[in-house]
Write a structure and sequence with these properties.
single chain, about 140 residues, alpha/beta, Rossmann fold, about 40% helix
């Protein structure tokens, strides 16, 4: 898996679009302490839908360690994940809580989705010779 963190590249729209076109899976991350971060993510998802239709995504609600400062409810996140038809994972990057689970959710979206392809575990041998899956954190 190749991971690319695009945080802070808002001013480089063309680069972000290129990353989206080349990516296969996406972790769309917002802070539970910032409604603005979720709002920004909505616009980013719209752009992703235009650049990479039917992209595999996982919605990630970060900063669960700051639950007392929460401004985005769990229900709001779950409603958006339902609308986008994607899994949602609450994480704390600070405490390393459920971070691995978010990546596992993303990888699971690739397993068994195409009957012409083997599971991602079996494809690893082939992908060592080809390009790896590119997953973006936004």
């Amino acid at each position: 898996m190749e991971i690319l963190d695009t945080a802070g590249t808002e001013q480089f729209t063309a680069m972000r679009d290129m990353y989206m076109k080349n990516g296969d899976g996406f972790l769309l991350v917002y802070s539970i302490t910032s409604a603005a971060s979720l709002h920004d993510l909505l616009g980013l998802k719209e752009r992703l839908d235009k650049v990479k239709p039917r992209a595999k995504i996982v919605l990630v609600a970060n900063k669960s360690d700051l639950a007392r400062d929460r401004t985005v409810s769990q229900k709001q996140g779950q409603d958006i994940a339902g609308k986008w038809n994607c899994p949602i994972v609450e994480t704390s990057a600070k405490d390393s809580q459920s971070v691995e689970a978010a990546f596992n959710e993303l990888l699971a979206l690739f397993e068994g989705t195409d009957p012409q392809q083997d599971s991602i575990k079996e494809r690893r041998l082939v992908q060592k010779k080809k390009r790896s899956k590119k997953c973006l954190i936004m």
